[in-house]
Amino acid sequence: MSSPSELRQLNDDELSQRLGETKEELFNLRFQLAMGKQDNSARMGQVRREVARALTLQAERKAGAPRAVAGSGAGKKADKRADKRKVAR
């Protein structure tokens, strides 16, 4: 399973290749489920999330969105506090 930060480090071609491999794995897992041969049912959800992460990253790159920095959630909290102060005044 790839973390979002690992996927962000890939270039567009590598990301497309990883997406294809992950979709193929999802197909195989679905096939195993239909045949009753799947032994790890949680893996299907993990693979689905990885496909979604890769698709989201591709859409961000296509739209030209700036890259997010890992662990930048602290700035959002500070912004919310500042917004609350503005409303209170």
Describe the 3D structure.
The chain is an all-alpha fold. It has a single domain (4-88), classed as Helix Hairpins, CATH 1.10.287. Helices cover 75% and strands 0% of the residues. It contains four helices and no strands. Helix 2 (12-35) packs antiparallel against helix 3. The protein is elongated and about 60 Å long. The relative contact order is 0.13.
Order of helices and strands: HHHH
The helicity comes to over 70%
- The overall strand count is 0
- pLDDT < 50 stretches: none
The CATH architecture designation is: Orthogonal Bundle
Q: What is the straight-line distance between the termini?
A: 47 Å
What is the fold named in CATH at topology level? Helix Hairpins
Round the mean pLDDT to the nearest integer and report it: 83
Strand content: under 5%
Give the C-level CATH assignment.
Mainly Alpha
Query: What is the radius of gyration?
Result: 19 Å
- Bulk shape: elongated
